[in-house]
């Protein structure tokens, strides 16, 4: 089956700890995205990548880092600098670099909780 | 400055037609209008996309007036399973960024 997978489904972070959220796609899509969603709110863009080895900051990139070493993978690290990381994290991909038109396909999400 | 404006919530009953209007006064010439649906604890799912006039697929219709400053998502004969949050998106050309911006969406509650 083609699609986007995110792992883990739930993740717990201790104070001062860095954690990494995985996102993998086998759709052969060029572009990938990370969003954060707080309860009752819309999605906010953290980072996006339109091609391997390149990525751009979104609206709320502070406290997060990403890498795009492979076309199919776009991991997100939530660093200790992110003081309020508790949220639902969604990864998405689209087939071309022009995300304004191409449909975004979303993964099932990772819920991050702070202990 | 918000890119799109939608009602926060709407209520309907099964079998009714639901129309959700989105305002996008600053839409750019080459922007498309895209709608997504999101169920709780899931990622959004693409519903429909259009540039002008009317677009229809098996799920919904999208009406876009000539000035393109608004659009209306029409869901025919809704069922309980249509209870979800609906997002209207346009491009984000102000920052020169080629990425979509999701607003807060419209929470549709369908009653039996």
Count of DSSP H/I helices of chain B: 0
Largest sheet of chain B: 5 strands, mixed
What is the overall silhouette of chain B?
Answer: globular
Instruction: Please give the count of helices of chain A.
Output: 0
Beta-strand content bin of chain B? 35-45%
Main β sheet profile of chain A = 7 strands, mixed
- Give the number of DSSP strands of chain A: 11
Low-confidence stretches of chain B: none
Share of helical residues of chain A = under 10%
Structural class of chain B: mainly beta
Outline type of chain A? globular
- N-to-C SSE series of chain A? EEEEEEEEEEE
Percent range for β-strand residues of chain A: over 45%
Structure description:
Chain A has 115 residues and is mainly beta. Helix content of chain A is 0%, strand content 49%. Chain A has strands at 4-7, 10-13, 19-25, 31-37, 43-51, 54-57, 64-66, 76-78, 87-94, 105-106, 110-114. In chain A, the strands form two sheets. In chain A, strands 2, 4, 5, 6, 9, 10 and 11 form a seven-stranded mixed sheet that branches. A four-stranded antiparallel sheet of chain A has the order 1-3-8-7, with no helix packed on it. In chain A, a hairpin with a 2-residue loop joins strand 5 and strand 6. The relative contact order of chain A is 0.33. The mean pLDDT of chain A is 91. Chain B has 112 residues and is an all-beta fold. Chain B has no helices and nine strands. Chain B has strands at 9-13, 18-23, 33-38, 45-50, 53-56, 61-64, 70-75, 84-89, 106-111. In chain B, the strands form two sheets. In chain B, strands 1-9-8-3-4 form a five-stranded mixed sheet, with no helix packed on it. In chain B, strands 2-7-6-5 form a four-stranded antiparallel sheet, with no helix packed on it. The radius of gyration of chain B is 14 Å and the shape is globular. The N and C termini of chain B lie far apart (37 Å). The model of chain B has no long low-confidence stretch (mean pLDDT 89). The chains are: A mainly beta (115), B mainly beta (112). Chains A and B meet through strand 5, strand 9 and strand 10 of A and strand 4 of B.
């Amino acid at each position: 089956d083609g699609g986007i997978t995110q792992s883990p489904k739930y993740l717990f972070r201790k104070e001062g700890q860095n954690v990494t959220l995985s996102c993998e796609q086998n759709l052969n899509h060029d572009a990938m995205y990370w969003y954060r969603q707080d309860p009752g709110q819309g999605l906010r863009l953290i980072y996006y990548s339109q091609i391997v080895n390149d990525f751009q900051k979104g609206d709320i990139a502070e406290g997060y880092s990403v890498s795009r070493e492979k076309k199919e993978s776009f991991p997100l690290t939530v660093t200790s600098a992110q003081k309020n990381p508790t949220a639902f994290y969604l990864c998405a991909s689209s087939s071309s670099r022009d995300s304004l038109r191409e449909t975004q396909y979303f993964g099932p999400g990772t819920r991050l909780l702070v202990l | 400055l918000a890119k799109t404006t939608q009602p926060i919530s709407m209520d309907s009953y099964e079998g009714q037609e639901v129309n959700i209007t989105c305002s996008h006064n600053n839409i750019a010439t080459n922007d498309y209008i895209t709608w997504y649906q999101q169920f709780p604890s899931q990622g959004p799912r693409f519903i429909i996309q259009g540039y002008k006039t009317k677009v229809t697929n098996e799920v919904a219709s999208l009406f876009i007036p000539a000035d393109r400053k608004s659009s209306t998502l029409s869901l025919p004969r809704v069922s309980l399973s249509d209870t979800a949050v609906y997002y209207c998106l346009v491009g984000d050309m102000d920052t020169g960024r080629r990425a979509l911006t999701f607003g807060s969406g419209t929470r549709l509650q369908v009653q039996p």
